[in-house]
């Protein structure tokens, strides 16, 4: 590719002289260089020429850039302000771990007038669910905070108003993931309804591109958050995306509610599998103290739970789907984690792991802290905003992935 000079050269007397020789760079080298740049810089370069626009818009380049960008993880942060609405920002994790005493704040904001639920983050896209309780409707929007683009309203759903009595309730839970085999982003919603002792479920899948909902096979197990719909932290087990699958913490059945397992939905085949939890996990934790939680941490499916009401335990599955590969990463005393309200039902969530450094979110005070596994010390993360650490902080990576 030829890169012409931007202007003519002139000597001190003002006379024009021969321009610099034309610089030629092969497209392969340009692609390699661009793939390491930040999204905001690439978006600016996209307007430089038609050839650069074509290179940067190519899906192969978008994937190449995403692969490089994934080596520099961020956290998405959310907070509400009365005048400015719902705010979304990202913060690079390397800055936080290099300087734990830094004040977390980002000027690169994306503001939304209406409050929404952030369902999940995948390849730089956020899936947002907006609800109208007046009209009993909800819809989706997809947002790329790095490119500051968002989709139009998609996936309109009409639903029954959630109602809770001593005999019945109805609610819907959303999850967001990516099917690499078809390069399709999918949203899964599980509608659950309970009448006395009977349960009924309906599962729908929305595919970005086709922009329509389809019914698939209903659940073969009972999700943990169906029982905990009244508990304020039931959202922790809405379903997590990992390598083209959505995973839920479930019971084997209503009768055997003490037996936990993982239900996995393959987004490619849209079929289910079940996995067992670690064999060393014994006893039924009190759901009013710390409910078992599935998360994706350090590129592994992880499982955390309470141990004897005194310790927080985290496991990770080294080989996805293989029960024998469960390995305990750490066990930490609540005293070291500064959790004095654990017995009052306040949940603790592990939101990021980087070697010996772990980030926890504390529901009691809605703040986050970094715990050092070696030193056994905890340091609160400073922030300028009322960030929803416990409910909203999610893994995020900057990308060029389009929202349509």
Automatic annotation (TrEMBL):
Alphabetical list of SMART domains matching this protein: FBOX
SUPFAM superfamilies for this protein: F-box domain
Pfam families referenced in this protein's UniProt entry, alphabetically: F-box, FBA_1
Domain F-box: 19-65
Transmembrane intervals: none
Taxonomic superkingdom: Eukaryota
Protein name: F-box protein interaction domain protein
Organism of derivation: Medicago truncatula
